[in-house]
User: Fold these one by one.
Assistant:
Number 1:
Amino acid sequence: MAGLKAARARGRMGGRPKALDESQVKVAITLAEAGELTINEICEQVGCSRSTYYR
């Protein structure tokens, strides 16, 4: 636990990295709300899978 605490103090975070960053999520939401593209087209533009899009 001390090692984890020390790593967090240095700015390290454990776990799997997020599939999408905040900017990609905002783009996907904007495209979805526009309603002009299909889910597959949105996923291609953002660079994610359908399951990641729905999650």
Number 2:
Amino acid sequence: MEPVRLQKFLADAGVCSRRAAEALIEAGEVSVNGKPTELGQRVTPGVDRVNVRGKFIGGGAATATTKITLLVNKPKGVVCGTPDGRHPETVYDLIPKQHARLRFLIAGRLDLESEGLVLLTSDGALADRIARGTEPVLRRMRVSLKQPFARSRVAQLLKGVRIEDELVAAEQVFVLHPDASGSSAELEVHVSHGRGRGLRELFTTIGCDVKRIQCAQIGPYKIGGMPLRGSRVLDTDETEQLFRSE
């Protein structure tokens, strides 16, 4: 088998996106045949022994022929990431048993208290494509607040705030069922896929108390009819439709 760049190997093996793999390599978290690695290094799948944080990563392109993309309906209290002592359940526990052997990446996370649609994929190239954001994938977020939100404040959400050196901002905001003054506690907020995990912090930063956040739509796919904790597989054509929604 032909040698491939180390970051591609890790993405194809489902460890993380290429961008995240580059960060792991730069941080010294990846070794090849027991030796430190560097960006741009090439490895031969099935020949070189690759470890991430001391854990052997088998496969790469040699075992990454099965590429599955799932939409899952995450409940509140389920972690998008590694479990912790208080919240042991993760979105990986929602993966159907027939796909459990694959290594999935989360393409756009929701925070612990948020619920709704999350995209999981075993296709490292797809995860990387979404992470780059050059072809935005729309997420429609339903936000319920504890107090009415004035339409005049929409500009604050569009301007956004900087959280951990990243600008978190809404792309469109719709005030739902406004009263005579133009205020409502129910909003629909549109964000690009992968950039909505700070939505709760955005509202908190501008002084709003959040009651509920639900991802109601990813690309053209809506949550309607999908049971809580349910999932469905997107085929290749459906995956491409993620990048073509209006």
Number 3:
Amino acid sequence: MLQTIEGIYRNGQIELSETPESISQAKVIVTFVEVQTVNGEQKSGLTAFDVAPDLLGKHDFGTGDLATNKEHLQGLGRD
């Protein structure tokens, strides 16, 4: 089972924001993300843009908005 939990590394220790569910022992992989600050205060939460702004808009793939495809919506909810 794979779980992702946010935490803070401070003074040589990792403080998790919550307790992992149903895990008594597991291997962990730690990725350090630089803490963003505004006027000396920590910003709450990072966005994908904060971490990798150079990647934003680089790729145009994946499923488009199916709500704009009238054929896809035809008969929806009429079972």
